[in-house]
Specification:
two-stranded antiparallel ribbon, 39% helix
């Protein structure tokens, strides 16, 4: 997912999601919106502290939970690794995790979604949403 432009009003984004606007939440949302990687809570905490020394690790954990429940953030749960986060993508995409380096790579395109749509339809279902995490090693 490309980073969102800095013209986004993060306070308004929080308000529209029905959330209370705090300086800490605004800092965390802006950091997450402007990154191309998928940071974990510790990454976000370290970056947030450089901008706002009132941010604690507990604040980041609580904020990520609130943002996820509000539908603004997607939590990426990976085996044996801390959860990573991204702003809810504008377009569906999936992820590949390099098992050796831990790198998380976005898989663009609609081929996986098309396949899952077809499989769901064959089973008598309509696909509502999906998110695939593929674990792989470079050869």
């Amino acid at each position: 997912m490309p980073a969102l432009t800095q013209s986004i009003d993060y306070k308004q984004l929080l308000r529209e999601a029905g959330l209370r606007v705090t300086p800490q939440r605004t800092t965390i949302v802006s950091l997450l919106s402007e990154t191309d990687d998928h940071p974990n809570v510790e990454d976000l905490y370290e970056k947030a502290r450089t901008l706002d020394d009132t941010v604690s690790v507990a604040t980041v954990y609580r904020t990520m939970s609130v943002l996820e429940n509000a539908g603004l953030v997607r939590k990426l749960v990976l085996e044996d690794a801390p959860a990573r986060y991204e702003m809810m993508p504008q377009t569906d995409h999936d992820h590949l995790v390099d098992m050796d380096s831990g790198e998380l790579v976005e898989i663009p395109g609609t081929e996986i979604a098309s396949l899952l749509d077809r499989v769901a339809a064959e089973m008598g279902y309509e696909l509502v949403s999906h998110h695939t995490v593929i674990r792989a090693r470079k050869v």
